[in-house]
């Protein structure tokens, strides 16, 4: 692996930092302008390595080898360098030290299809391919249609369960009457009764960029008296987002209903004006693919459900629900019933047997959320105790039957 030359970390036409990529592909550098830092206001030495790690395509991406071969690069580091770390989500990019490149000639909003020759130590030219910085494990690609960017995703299974989940989550938000500025509408791509993926329009653009929750949470050291959840809310409120708690609580309840296990800190965030650097709003809810019993397609008990680990502000749904102050932020009367869920997945090509399990697990979650909204505690301890009591009762009944039978 060659030693890469130095790069400026750019935000539009302004230099935010300086860094180099080492032989082992590690990154070292420093933020030169805290105001333009990917972690707003921070010049900590960890910022650039963190940004680079998040920016690179995941090594576990389903179609990684195909993507590397197509771009003619050896690894994800070269892939990211080749597209100058450009993204549809924000205004950050990298410029080789010594090159005279401008935001106007490289950005993906004004130059969706263009290659720029960059004199460097590499055997390739800048490709302007936004997929070079597209995160996540699912196979996905950016598409430019009618002067707009869209993202197309494919799931890990042949029946496209994850893609259908995105469409189902969209239907939940629609039935709640949620404004489209607060969630990302996904559409399932259907061909001959089978789902072939899903697609959504980019919610970022030249005047709106995404700051992931991971970077927001790193804007300051968390005070000991605050949870990660309250610390995130406090940071957002200090930056003018007065309704952040309201949206997060709605997100927690819809995630619970949908059994979304993957609301990690890169699957939510805030929108910022890239010119004024002002926080505009919470980012619309996006990426609900890993939900609806995606990895547990069997009929689950309440105990099974509460034992399933999640990635979010907490490791369990039980603890996550404990953060909610307005318990009825989701109107359960405006959610589909078990039969409607079954019909939805059948209509999108899922087998009858699997659709039945999906619908049953959803119905269990809906019952649990209803109980929570009416003041009952959702507790794994209680469910385990109840299960033990059921076992004890069963043993007692068997003994009584055996005694009556003279066994």
Describe the 3D structure.
It is built from 13 helices and eleven strands. The chain has two domains: 6-118, no CATH class; 150-309 and 332-373, Phosphatidylinositol 3-kinase Catalytic Subunit, Chain A, Domain 5 (Orthogonal Bundle). A hairpin with a 2-residue loop joins strand 1 (6-11) and strand 2. It is α+β, with helices and mostly antiparallel strands and 407 residues long. The model has no long low-confidence stretch (mean pLDDT 91).
Gist of the model:
By secondary structure, the chain is of the alpha+beta class. 35% of the residues lie in helices and 15% in strands.
* Oligomeric category: single chain
Which word captures the global form? globular
Strand content: 15-25%
Kindly state the number of beta strands: 11
- The side-by-side strand order for the widest beta sheet comes to 3-2-1-4
CATH names the topology of the largest domain as: Phosphatidylinositol 3-kinase Catalytic Subunit, Chain A, Domain 5
Name the CATH class of the largest domain: Mainly Alpha
Order of helices and strands: EEEHHHEHEEHEEEHHHEEHHHHH
Give the count of structural domains. 2
Structural class: alpha+beta
N-to-C CA distance: 76 Å
Helix content: 25-40%
What topology does this entry show?
Elements: E1 6-11, E2 14-21, E3 27-31, H1 47-55, H2 64-71, H3 76-82, E4 92-96, H4 103-106, E5 139-145, E6 148-154, H5 161-176, E7 187-191, E8 194-201, E9 209-212, H6 213-217, H7 228-238, H8 244-258, E10 269-272, E11 279-282, H9 302-307, H10 317-321, H11 338-347, H12 352-373, H13 380-404
Antiparallel strand pairs: 1-2, 1-4, 2-3, 5-6, 6-8, 7-8, 9-10, 10-11
């Amino acid at each position: 692996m060659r030693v890469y030359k130095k790069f400026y970390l750019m935000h539009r036409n302004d230099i935010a930092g300086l860094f180099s990529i080492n032989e082992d592909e590690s990154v070292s550098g420093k933020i030169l302008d805290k105001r333009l830092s990917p972690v707003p206001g921070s010049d900590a030495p960890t910022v650039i390595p963190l940004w680079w790690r998040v920016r690179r395509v995941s090594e576990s991406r389903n179609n990684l080898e195909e993507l590397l071969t197509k771009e003619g690069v050896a690894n994800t580091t070269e892939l990211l360098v080749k597209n100058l770390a450009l993204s549809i989500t924000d205004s950050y990019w990298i410029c080789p030290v010594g090159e005279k490149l401008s935001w106007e000639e490289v950005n993906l909003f004004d130059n969706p299809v263009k290659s720029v020759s960059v004199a460097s130590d590499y055997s390739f030219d800048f490709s302007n391919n936004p997929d070079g910085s597209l995160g996540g494990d699912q196979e996905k690609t950016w598409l430019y249609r009618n002067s707009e960017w869209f993202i197309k995703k494919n799931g890990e299974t042949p029946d496209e369960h994850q893609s259908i989940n995105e469409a189902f989550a969209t239907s939940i938000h629609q039935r709640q009457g949620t404004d489209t500025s607060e969630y990302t509408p996904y559409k399932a791509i259907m061909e001959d009764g089978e789902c072939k993926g899903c697609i959504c329009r980019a919610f970022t653009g030249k005047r709106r960029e995404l700051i992931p929750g991971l970077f927001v949470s790193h804007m300051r050291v968390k005070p000991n008296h605050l949870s990660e959840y309250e610390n995130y809310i406090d940071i957002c409120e200090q930056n003018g987002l007065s309704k952040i708690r309201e949206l997060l609580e709605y997100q927690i309840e819809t995630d619970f209903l949908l059994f979304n296990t993957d609301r990690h800190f890169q699957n939510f965030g805030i929108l910022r004006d890239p010119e004024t650097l002002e926080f505009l709003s919470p980012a619309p809810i996006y990426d609900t693919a890993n939900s609806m019993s995606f990895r547990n397609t069997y009929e689950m008990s309440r105990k099974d459900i509460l034992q399933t680990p999640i990635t979010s502000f907490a490791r369990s749904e039980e603890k996550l629900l404990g953060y909610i102050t307005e318990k009825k932020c989701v109107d359960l009367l405006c959610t589909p019933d078990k039969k409607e869920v079954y019909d939805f997945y059948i209509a999108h090509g899922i087998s009858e047997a699997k659709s039945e399990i999906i619908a049953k697990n959803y119905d269990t979650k809906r019952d649990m959320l209803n109980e929570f909204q009416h003041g009952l505690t959702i507790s794994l301890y209680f469910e385990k105790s109840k299960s033990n009591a059921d076992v004890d009762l069963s043993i007692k009944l068997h003994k009584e039957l055996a005694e009556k039978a003279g066994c």
